[in-house]
Structure formats: structure tokens, C-alpha cells
Amino acid sequence: MKSRGTRKISIIWVPFFCFSFFFFGMLITNSRIWSVSESNGQVISRRRHEQELQIVSEDSSFKIPAEKKDVMTEVYRTQEAIQSLDKKITMLYRDLVEARNSRGMHSSDSHTPSIESSGKSNLPKKKMLMVIGINTAFSSRRRRDSVRETWMPRGEKLFQLEREKGIVVRFMIGHSATSNSILDRAIDSEDALHKDFLRLEHIEGYHELSAKTKSFFSTAVAKWDADFYVKIDDDVHVNLGMLATTLAYHRSKPRVYIGCMKSGPVLSSKSVKYHEPEYWKFGEEGNKYFRHATGQIYAISKDLATYIAVNQPILHKYANEDVSLGAWLIGLEVEHIDDRNMCCGTPPDCEWKAQAGNVCVASFDWSCSGICKSVERIKSVHEKCGEGNGAVWSALI
Prior knowledge:
The chain has a domain at 128-263 and 292-394: Spore Coat Polysaccharide Biosynthesis Protein SpsA, Chain A (Alpha-Beta Complex). The chain has twelve helices and nine strands. The protein has helices at residues 2-66, 68-103, 141-148, 156-165, 182-194, 209-223, 240-249, 302-311, 321-330, 349-355, 374-385, 391-394; strands spanning 127-135, 167-175, 197-203, 225-233, 237-238, 256-262, 292-301, 335-338, 362-363.
């Protein structure tokens, strides 16, 4: 009886226990599913976050090309800064050239009036309109005297011209090959009398005119701050008032080269006066030079004179001085001004023009590359073609 009762009880509870175990198993399974779903949700959320970050990073990488304009702007700014630095270096080098050149000029100009040696070297230089260098030689004393007696002011008037009109006029000359020679002492004596020389660190010689031209511009731009620097031969007649008015007209231009432009033949024959040893550089025999101002008189602006001063060690010298200057400037951004009023003929040419109210800047004879027999004739040219003694003082410059 007891065994049957026991068997019946276990049969009755079997479904209950099965259901209980099933229910308990479901609870455990659901809890695991929930935990797994939660962990999967975190993983999914983390993956979504990583994908969003990747998308953001990809978006930013795509934005880089859109920012190329900003990058190019920075590149341009950098280039401008480099160019500005180059300009500053050029200016510093020019100052160095000025300081170097000024060392050797204090002693030679110690006798000059107070307007040139006032002892206030630290003060800014007075701005001049033009500095004129009259090219001369040791043997040209009579030519210099003829110029002094005609178109070039003398004595106090020379320095008054500087103070009031900003026009500097000097005979430019270097030194002889022998130190302190009789030639040098003769120039020193003449300079002590007239005080109108600019001594150059240059050894005089006919075939050294190109080097002398470089030396003049380098020395002049270091000594005077002018708008223009002018080279004139000592056998040319000049009207200073007309020259000043002509140059003042071009004052606002940055780089100008003014003169009577020409393009003569390149002479290959050694027997001629203006033989060019490097004729082969200009092409076939019989070719002409590039345009350049004739050497009797020409003017260049300050930027160009400074360029020559800074680069003079590497500027090539041709046989003819005017060709050399043209070569130094032909490759630059320079305005070439062909002014035929700077190369009038001697009377009657300049005389007729003066009578018509068109006074010439300069007069000379092409056949002589200057006034033929200038010592004897320049006074006559001055009387017939001169602008009058008061013209330069009344010139509007």
C-alpha cells in the first residue's frame, strides 16, 4: 500500500516539476538573452560611434581639397615675404656699397664747402634732382676751363645750385696707374682751386671707359640721393635748365633711361676706331647693336644707378662705354626714352631751334662725337644756342 501511494505521488508531481523546470529554464534563458542583447547593443553602439568617427574623418579628408585656396594663399604670402626679404637684402647691400664708397671720399672732399662736409653724416641726405658727372681726362684741362666759362656754374654758384635747385655738377676722374703721380697732383691742385671734382676709385685709360662709368654711378649713388644720375662728355654743350626740366618731367617713373637712342653697326675690323673685339656675340658679321643711348650724354634714374652699384662686379664691359650701359639695362624692366633734344647739332641747328623757342638740352657734332675743336668753339655755341644765364634758376623742377 505504501509503495503504491509513493508511486502515485511521484507521478502526480512529475508534470509540476517538469513545468517548473521548464519555467525556470526559460527565466535563465531570457536573462542570458537580455544580457547578450544588452552587450550586443553596446557593441553595436560602439561600432556605430566608430563608424561616425570614420565618417567624420573621411569628411574632413574630403574637405582638404576644398581648402587648397587657403593653402595657396599661404604660399603666395610666403612668396611675397621672400620677395620682401630680397628687397631688404638688396637695400642693405646698397647701404654697404654706400658706406664702402664713402670711406674714400671724405679725404678728397674735405676742402668742399660746409654743405658737403657739415659733419652731420648721420642725418638723411638731402634729396637732389640730378647728379651730373662730366667725364674728363688728365690731358683735358683746357676743355674743363672752356666748360667752366660757358654752361657750368663756378665757385659759390656751383654750390648754390645744389642748395636751391638740387643739381650737382662735377668733373669725374680717377687716378693714374702710379700712386701720387704728377698727373694726380695736378688734378688735386686744380680741385683745390675750383672744388668741382669727383675722384673715383678707378685707373684712368681710354679703354677703361666702361669701368669708369660703373665707378661713377656707384660712387655718385653712394654720395648723393638723387632722382637722376647723368653722364656728359667734356666736349658737349649743355643747357642745365632744359636738362633739369626734361628730367623732372619723368620724375615719377621708377626706371628710365634717357638719351638719344641709336643702333650702330658692330665693327669687327681691328683697324677702325670703335672696334668691338666681342663682335661675334652680336650674331653674324655686319649686325647692329641693340638700342642704346649715345655716349655723349645720357641719364638714368636712381633705381638703375643703384642696380649698377650693387651688381658692378658681374656687369660685363664691352669695348664701347655706351654699349656697355645699354647691355646692363637691356634685360631689365626699363623705359627707354629717345629724346632727340639731347643730341642737337652745333649752329646753325641748335641756333634755329633756339630761335623757334625749342631750346636744346645738349649740342655736339656727330662727326667728332662731341663739339669739333670744342675749346675754341664751345663759347660760340653757348652764345648762339645757350638758354641764358638765369634759365636754370627759374626752371620749374
